[in-house]
Amino acid sequence: MGNKTDHDIKRKAWLAVFLLCAVFWVIVGLIVYYFLRPATHF
């Protein structure tokens, strides 16, 4: 039973890390797009 809960916690931890990475890259992409957009207009 303890092994199952540990595996579930590890799976949730990986899911949280994956979601955090996805959100981080989306924010980075938006920042890069926001800073490069005015440069293209010049």
Describe this structure in words.
- This protein has one helix at residues 2-41.
- It is mainly alpha-helical.
- The protein has one domain (1-42).
- The longest helix has 40 residues, at 2-41.
- The chain is rod-shaped, with a radius of gyration of 18 Å.
- InterPro entries: YmiA_put-like (IPR047744).
- It holds the Pfam family YmiA-like.
- Keywords: Membrane, Transmembrane, Transmembrane helix.
- It comes from Acerihabitans sp. KWT182.
- The chain crosses the membrane at residues 12-36.
Query: How many distinct helices?
Result: 1
Shape: rod-shaped
Q: What is the rounded distance between the termini? A: 63 Å
Secondary-structure element pattern, one letter each: H
Largest sheet: none
Tally of discrete structural domains: 1
Question: What proportion of the residues is helical, as a percent range?
Answer: over 70%
Q: What's the alpha carbon Rg, rounded to whole Å?
A: 18 Å
What is the structural class?
mainly alpha
Number of strands: 0
Unreliable runs, pLDDT <50, ≥5 residues? none
Mean pLDDT equals 88
- What proportion of the residues form beta strands (DSSP E)? under 5%
